[in-house]
Amino acid sequence: MRLLLELAQHGAKVVVVDLQSQDAEQVASEIVAGSGNAIAVTTDVSKPEQVESAIQEAINRFGHLDFMFNNAGIALVAEMYYMDLARWRRIIDINLMGVVYGTHFAYQVMCRQGTGHIINIASLGGLVPGPLRTAYVTGKFGVVGLSLSLRTESKKYGVRISVVCPGAVKTLIFQTAEMIGNDRRKTEEGLKKFA
Ligand SMILES: NC(=O)c1ccc[n+]([C@@H]2O[C@H](COP(=O)([O-])OP(=O)(O)OC[C@H]3O[C@@H](n4cnc5c(N)ncnc54)[C@H](O)[C@@H]3O)[C@@H](O)[C@H]2O)c1
């Protein structure tokens, strides 16, 4: 949010994309209220056609795509023993395939433009494995691998690729995280043992 406001203050035209329409609308309206230029597009990043359409919306509205931030993600805390495959699919669909789709469609546009910068938000969990978050870590390692591999081949097209691996930051992700096979309090206690 703060990043988007700062970008808008520097003249960027912003397309705010989120599954939660109201949140995206609110961020876009705050940018517009601060004399910036922004629109909101409701998108589920796990659906490739929606990601493609959001990027098309950006092009239709603003003419080109300079930056693409693949930031959407969810957290899930569970021992592998308690995980079912539907949950595996959900976290990989959002945290890894969502970034693959965002990178894929933005990359096509940026390669044709001969310029652009894709910034993928992974996690410290994309570099350092840990228990109770095997699925999360699997997706984030994928995001790091995707970004570092593409980084080397994208140069000739004039496209930059970055990957960001933050440590813990207090956001809503911990409130919305599903915790399986344990109650929330016990799981949080368990996580402290590995901290
Ligand atoms: N908060 C942390 O400690 C931390 C640490 C490392 C990495 N990260 C990563 O940073 C990114 C942002 O997380 P955050 O901490 O700001 O959490 P957050 O919950 O505040 O933000 C995540 C956003 O993703 C959106 N989202 C979830 N599923 C979506 C979907 N299918 N399609 C579109 N949007 C969807 C949510 O609506 C929400 O606005 C995530 O990729 C997360 O894994 C967070």
How would you summarize what this structure contains?
The protein is of the alpha/beta class. The protein is 52% helix and 17% strand. The strands form three sheets. Strands 3-5-6 form a three-stranded parallel beta sheet, with helices on one face.
Could you please describe the fold and organization of this structure?
This protein is of the alpha/beta class and 195 residues long. The protein has a domain at 65-194: Rossmann fold (3-Layer(aba) Sandwich), CATH 3.40.50.720. It is 52% helix and 17% strand. The protein contains 7 helices and 7 strands, in the order H-E-H-E-H-E-E-H-E-H-E-H-E-H. It has helices at 2-9, 21-33, 48-62, 85-113, 134-154, 173-176, 184-194; strands spanning 13-18, 37-42, 67-70, 76-78, 116-121, 159-164, 178-180. Strands 3-5-6 form a 3-stranded parallel sheet, with helices on one face. Strand 5, helix 5 and strand 6 form a beta-alpha-beta unit. Helix 3 (48-62) runs parallel beside helix 4 (85-113). The longest helix has 29 residues, at 85-113. The protein is globular and about 50 Å long. The protein binds nicotinamide-adenine-dinucleotide.
